Amino acid sequence: MSPPKKLCFVVGPIGRVGTPERIHADWLNEGIIKPLFKEHFESFSTVRADEISVPGMIDAQVINHLFDAELVISDMSFRNANAFYEMGIRHAVQKPIIHMYKSGEEIPFDVQPYRAIEFALTHPSDLVRAKEALRVAIERALDAAYKPDNPVIRARGFAELEKTATPPEKALLDRLSLIETRLSSLATKSTRAPRRAPKNYDQIFWIYGTEKITSEQFNEFVNVALDFMSPKSIQLSQSDGTIEIELDVEKKEAIMSLLNHTMPEKLPWFKEASDSIPF
User: Fold this and answer.
1) Spelled out in words, what is the top-level CATH class assigned to the domain 184-274?
2) What pLDDT is attached to residue 244?
3) Which fold has domain 6-152?
4) Distance between CA atoms of residues 99 and 76, nearest Å
5) CATH 3.30.70.260: which residues of the chain?
6) Under 8 Å CB-to-CB from 198, ≥6 apart: which residues?
7) Residue 140 backbone zone (phi > 0: left; psi -120 to 50: alpha; other: beta)
8) What is the rounded CA–CA span in Å between residue 142 and residue 70?
């Protein structure tokens, strides 16, 4: 008799049959997740909430799966409230979870610093890329040395640290808290209105990476930028992956030199800063 299979529980927007959410969910589940597990992770079975066949209350079964599953894949597309509630439960359980989201969508600030797989469904090659990215993420999550990281784990870690922190350590925690607050404020500004051409080009610079800049790299840049400049705003373009930074400066050449000589040393992915409009 073969051993029982491990469980990968899939959460995300499902929607009614025929809705954009349902079509999206079915493509992700049947076009990416299930074929990938069948080919590379045969010791697992995958279950989405609407596929639970055991009699009983569905909400209790979902929560039990969130607690007990060896792995959870969470689709953050469409910012579905139920999906984020379920993702929060899994975060609290402190077990492996993989985040995914539909290409072109803005993911909430609280989870931006954590690795997430951006995927598209507009071309057959999109499925190939998504499956490969997911395969790598699953292998990492199942590694014996892997330690889950999410906002809940991070917050609890800070709480425990504050109990025994020395004065210098508390000062560092205060500094980190300030940076988090400023990042949150900048992220809020960047989602209030679509990206547009600025009026004062003398104070605008664009930051480029070796590839499309990710949300994780954006947060990394902001942390470094806050140390030596006082930006009016910093925004990440989801469409072309550039960073737009507005500075209250008079000497453009000086700040350009600072960006192009300081950033490459601190951020390996940094390519260049430019005052040329990227569109």
Assistant:
1) alpha beta
2) 76
3) Rossmann fold (3.40.50)
4) 7
5) 184-274
6) 204, 244, 246
7) alpha
8) 9
211 contact partners, CB below 8 Å, separation of at least 6? 241, 269
Other C-beta atoms lying within 10 Å of the C-beta of residue 59: 11
What pLDDT shows up at residue 192? 39
Greatest Cα pair distance, the chain, in angstroms, is 75
Q: Give dist(CA 118, CA 155) in Å, integer.
A: 25
Place of tokens 């029982």: 4
**Which of the residue ranges 25-29, 88-92, 204-208, 229-233 would you say has the lowest mean pLDDT?**
229-233
CA distances from 125 to 76, 89, 117, 161, 224 (A): 21, 33, 15, 46, 36
- Determine the average pLDDT of the residues in 4-23: 94
pLDDT digits (tens, 9 = 90+) for 62-81: 999 999 999 999 999 999 99
Classify the phi-psi angles of 258: left when phi > 0, otherwise alpha if psi is within -120 to 50, otherwise beta.
Answer: alpha
Consecutive H or E run containing 10? strand 6-11
DSSP secondary structure code for residue 229 in this structure: -
| All residues at 6 or more sequence positions from 116 whose CB lies less than 8 Å from its CB, including other chains | 76, 99, 100, 101, 107, 215
Structure tokens at 222: 């902001």
When mean pLDDT is compared across 88-97, 182-191, 257-266, the lowest value belongs to 182-191
Helices (H), the chain: 20-26, 34-40, 58-68, 81-93, 124-142, 151-164, 167-190, 215-228, 252-266
When pLDDT is cut at 50, 70 and 90, the band that residue 56 belongs to is: low
Query: How many Å apart are CA 75 and CA 271, to the nearest integer?
Result: 31
Report pLDDT for 217: 80
